[in-house]
Amino acid sequence: MNEPPARSRANALLHTMTGHSEPSPPLSCPPADLRRRVLAAVEGEPSRTRRQQQVRNAALTLFGGVVPLVLFFWKGGLRQDPRPDVLVLETAGGAACAAFVAGVLAFSRGRSMLGRRRASLLVLTVAAPVALLLLKIGPSAQFPGMMASWAERRGFRCLWLGVLLAPAPLLAVLLSRRGTSPAHPTAAGAAMGAAVGACVWVLVDLWCPVAYIPHLFIGHVLPVVLTTVVGAFFGTRILDLPGLRRGNARESRG
Q1: Domain of 9?
Q2: Residues 35 and 150 in one domain
Q3: Cα–Cα nearest to 95, from 136, 155, 142
Q4: DSSP secondary structure letter of residue 32
């Protein structure tokens, strides 16, 4: 007898989450209870065909990539002076490499089909802005005058640019991964927010020639932190399975 589509989809999700046909112990609830709650959560969600899911993810990817680029060029695009070419390549290139690594770590599951451990995700959220800051300061310190204070550039314009660029890609990545991280949705959302913030850092770095450290904390680091916090907040609500979240809420009230 063929399984109903929703139940078949739920079993596939369980298999993806654990690598086995039955849930494995690492999650906090007993296997039988987990299976019941995942089945109930998935059966309550509308089913999409693979083609529909591919189109949806492609649209989200396009939205998340195009909107910040349009806004970046609307705000003036690359502003190099007085930086030499090699400094722009070093700082923006280093930030791009860091953003790539952060994205791989945030969006891949690692060795476990349940996703990366909460501790690993939290380390990523802290390491991303620290690495980006060091990759900005290190090369800038090698060039005379590049870390000087700019009285008219306190960092708030860069902060505003980062806040302007981040929402579209953050929304796109969270929606594209909706319901895929029931084990640690808050930490996963924070890690995704940090990865998006790292990508935004690259554009802000291309736009801003200032490397004065107080300016960097306000205009460059703070947008990454804000994106991480927003990612954690919405990750709890988007990356978790709705049925599991409701069940956890009932258990906490009980």
Answers
A1: 5-46
A2: no
A3: 136
A4: H
Tell me, yes or no, whether 153 and 31 share the same domain.
no
CA-CA distances (angstroms) from residue 162 to 18, 48, 126, 154, 229? 37, 34, 18, 14, 14
Element (H, E) at 176: helix 167-176
Buried b (16+ CB within 10 A) or exposed e, 23-40: beeebebeeeebbebbbb
Q: Which of 109, 102, 108 is nearest to 227 (CA)?
A: 102
CA–CA dist 179, 171 (Å, integer): 14
Per-residue pLDDT of the chain in tens (254 residues, 90 and over written 9): 444 444 444 454 545 444 444 444 444 444 555 555 555 555 555 666 777 778 888 898 899 999 999 999 999 999 988 999 999 999 999 999 999 999 999 988 767 666 678 899 999 999 999 999 999 999 999 999 899 888 888 899 999 999 999 999 999 999 988 877 777 889 999 999 999 999 999 999 999 999 999 999 999 999 999 999 999 999 988 888 665 554 444 433 44
Are 11 and 65 within one domain?
no
Question: Do both 103 and 171 map to the same domain?
Answer: yes
